[in-house]
Request: fold
Amino acid sequence: MKAHGTVHKYGDNVDTDVIIPARYLNTSDHKELASHCMEDIDKDFVKNVKDGDIIVANMNFGCGSSREHAPIAIKASGIGCVIASTFARIFYRNSINIGLPILECDEAAKDIDNGNEVEIDFDTGIITNVTKNKTYQAQPFPEFIKEIINKGGLLNSLKK
Reply:
């Protein structure tokens, strides 16, 4: 399992209210949520994001409320992975549950810049910054998490 894309870089404490503002929570339509993803922190995100792109952030990404809408909006926008120094606990679990790949890697989060081209090998946990010709080691996914993500989320992984 791999990802490859251009980086959209953010700082510390990116909360769920800026990932998907509360004013849009009256819908469960994934594409509608994606059309407003990150707009309160990056008004050009939806215009610039392409399928497979990568979000990189510093500490405590996804803090705030426990809404699943935040990782759903990110995944539906086309993001292939989120890399951060740390994630809020509930955001981390919600991301896995809906099949959004996320990796904690402090070194990568600090060194990767906005616009860098990044490749990720989820089997090994190796993150390659193609732009800077540097690699970073994240903890690879355990098999059960790989299965959940490969099937598009927890509910899909339970189907026979």
About this structure: The CA atoms of residues 35 and 46 lie 6 Å apart. The two ends are 21 Å apart (CA to CA).
